[in-house]
Specification:
mainly alpha; 11 helices
């Protein structure tokens, strides 16, 4: 049972996130200090550290707050029966969100730290991987799921950060459209076309099994075994198919 103290803590935590979000939207990331958040919330500065651990903990929750509606809309795209059209719609949604909410977008993708991506960014990448897996299940993916996910994610983020850094009056909407079509053409096959088998069609078979496994854990495998199996399948699916070098 939740105590009154816990309810008070949750309420204060929510007020701090909203205060930080307001600072971010009104004045930018440079203005988002723990002292400013505490002042806007009307509490002592140590309260921020008590509830979030440090400033990065607060920023993680602010990013999730800003990305919440976008991630919900993106998840809704998974109902589309055409997986490649779904990727195009996801790209357009991603671009629109980045340009409409540059403060939140740069909070997640513009603060590069080696080996780290905020939780909101990891959730977005996981949703993208699900979409790529749908393309693979339809037999329309030219490479392994993970490499395709990394390529589409990298091109998308780079395109949006470039557009955000361009004065609004100088932005060309065709930039994002051209990038979208080039990367989707590089990753996917037209409907009804299937990749030519390489040798005994190992890459195609591996990709089919990888797509079939999806996000479900086979009951017969341990967590470690599943991780290893997915790594092997993705490596085999990303093998020699005329679009990249053979992996050893």
């Amino acid at each position: 049972m939740e105590t009154a103290a816990k309810r008070t803590g949750h309420t204060l935590r929510r007020k701090m996130v909203l205060a930080a979000a307001g600072l971010l939207e009104d004045e930018g990331l440079e203005a988002l200090s723990t002292r400013a958040v505490a002042a806007r919330t009307g509490v002592p500065t140590p309260s921020v550290f008590r509830l979030f651990g440090d400033k990065e903990g607060l920023l993680e929750e602010v990013a999730e707050h800003g990305f919440q509606r976008y991630l919900g809309a993106k998840a809704g795209l998974l109902t589309d029966e055409d997986p490649v059209r779904m990727l195009r719609d996801a790209w357009d949604l991603h671009v629109a969100f980045g340009l409409e909410h540059p403060a939140y977008y740069t909070l997640v993708y513009g603060r590069v730290r080696p080996g780290h991506l905020p939780r909101a960014g990891r959730r977005a990448a996981a949703d993208l991987r699900k979409m790529i897996t749908r393309v693979a299940a339809a037999g329309r993916l030219r490479m392994g799921v993970q490499r395709a996910t990394d390529v589409l994610h990298s091109v998308g983020v780079g395109t949006i950060l470039t557009l955000i850094g361009t004065p609004p009056g100088e932005r060309d909407p065709r930039t994002a459209e051209s990038a979208r079509e080039m990367v989707i053409d590089a990753l996917t096959l037209p409907s009804g076309e299937h990749p030519a088998p390489a040798g005994p069609a190992v890459p195609s078979s591996a990709m089919a099994l990888l797509a079939a496994l999806g996000e479900d854990d086979p009951a017969v495998l341990s967590a470690g075994e599943r991780v290893l199996l997915l790594e092997w399948l993705d490596r085999l699916a990303d093998g020699p198919r005329g679009d990249g070098p053979r992996r050893g």
